[in-house]
Amino acid sequence: MKKSGNEVIIIGAGNVGTHLARQLDQQNYTIRGICSRSIQSARQLAKYYVCESWANPAIIPNDAQYYFICVNDEAIASVAEAMPSTNGLVMHTSGSTPLDVLSRFPNRGVFYPIQTFTKTHETDFSLVPICIEASNKKSLNTLKNLALQFSNNIIEADSIKRKYIHLSAIFASNFTNYMYVIAYDILTKQQLPFSILLPLILESFEKVTLMEPWQAQTGPAVRGDSFIIQEHLKMLSNNPDYQEIYRLLSEQIMKHKK
Amino acid sequence: MKKSGNEVIIIGAGNVGTHLARQLDQQNYTIRGICSRSIQSARQLAKYYVCESWANPAIIPNDAQYYFICVNDEAIASVAEAMPSTNGLVMHTSGSTPLDVLSRFPNRGVFYPIQTFTKTHETDFSLVPICIEASNKKSLNTLKNLALQFSNNIIEADSIKRKYIHLSAIFASNFTNYMYVIAYDILTKQQLPFSILLPLILESFEKVTLMEPWQAQTGPAVRGDSFIIQEHLKMLSNNPDYQEIYRLLSEQIMKHKK
User: Fold this and answer.
1) pLDDT by 10-residue block (mean), chain A, 258 residues
2) In angstroms, rounded to a whole number, what is the distance separating the alpha carbons of residues A77 and A103?
3) A202 → closest Cβ in B96, B167, B205
4) How far apart (Å, rounded) are the C-alpha atoms in residues B144 and B154?
5) Structural domain span for residue A146
């Protein structure tokens, strides 16, 4: 007889799989095993939870209660196809992949945390909104109870709505981070530390919690200060890529300003 | 006889002038008057400090100790030309304007706070790095002492270096804020609140305090997930401007990834 009805199998040992495993282990769940196409990654993560590890999704047990597919969007369909049939709740964690991709499982769902994960930084899940979707009422309830172990901010969203949330998250996080990459590059070339920008970056965050983004917009583009913009474009002439981003974003801010 | 050697005149009643006046008033400085080409703006700000207000820089007194020029970059030169001659320390607050623009004043300097200011949000100046530059040793010392009333993070930087700091600040703050504008637009069209992205935006800030920006980069572009990128470009087809930004930033992240 099984000791608990809370066994979880995690497929994918990247950023998301690593963070989910940690959080589930801290709650009342048993990590039954980790599957990763890189057996080294699977073993490394499995070591922490003293559980099994596999490289091939075809050989994972079919009697766990929860399956989290935490692989790249492009690999979700083939992983789902390779997995054994199961009555467990099979979930993927992708913002942009429809629920349908799991249609061969009677109990299927989506568990999409609106967050950016890196292995080296622990995330406080209690604040993270989680978008959920499921194939039937029973799965939705199970999924909701599961998600509530992580966070009180649960958003029911269908596959279309979730795709737009994911798209907006890319602008708000991945692309803003790339702006930091560029700022870092510019400062490093001048032998200046990136840390001089941190109070500014913090302030930009604080402002967006207090007002609509257009109200918070400052800078030469929204002021229409074309002289400074031309100067900056000249300063970037040795990096046509950064120059193109500067030009495009400045033009759009000027064009759309409210 | 003057009651103090700490009289300040502020030219410009916008975001920067408003914040400097507040901070100087809280320290041991007397706001002697506010000058703004809009006399209404000057009067409104002067009201708080029970001081004079002017619309024309030619008529401001010439015997104050400190003059802060807090006008748009394009207007600094003409304001400096219109002002009376003075032995006071005349400073501008611009990231991108050379010190030379104040060459008619024997004691001149630059006081550039690396921060984004909006009138409706109070700034904690103690954390704000301030870039300073001055025409002579005496002015530099005066300026340094003044800046230390605001912050312990004082950076001596010449006009060239300061321009690069300003350029990097535009990427790290103005352009990231524009990414929030776009995310806000996408979510609003789906009747979803922008607030669901705030934990993600906070995490992006926290990560950049802990690791280099490239180490923090996540998302479909850095993973090379071209299927998702194509999907997102389709979703943005009704907004060619946002589509162009998405395409350009994704291409560059893929091209430059480390």
Assistant:
1) 74 94 92 97 96 97 97 94 97 96 97 89 88 96 94 94 97 98 97 96 94 94 92 97 98 92
2) 10
3) B205
4) 7
5) 7-157
Tally of domains within chain B: 2
Q: At A202, which helix (H) or strand (E)?
A: helix A198-210
Give the model's pLDDT for residue A1: 37
Measure the CA–CA gap between A59 and A52, rounded to whole angstroms: 11
ipTM above 0.90? yes
The CA distance from A167 to B60, in Å, is 53
CATH code (residue B230) = 1.10.1040.20
* Stretch (H or E) spanning B32: strand B30-35
CB atoms within 10 A of CB A190: 15
Q: Which residue of A has its CA nearest to B186?
A: A168
Q: Do A223 and B72 touch (CB under 8 A)?
A: yes
CB-closest option in B72, B183, B200 to A116: B200
What tokens appear for A115 in the block? 């967050």
Closest chain B residue to A171 measured between Cα atoms? Answer: B179
Q: For residue A2, is it within any domain?
A: no
CB pair distance less than 8 Å for A171 and B186: yes
Q: Does B144 share its domain with B169? A: no
What's the full length of chain B, in residues?
258
> A1 is written with which tokens?
């007889």
Tell me how close the Cα of A75 comes to any Cα of chain B, in angstroms: 10
* pLDDT over threshold 90, residue B1: no
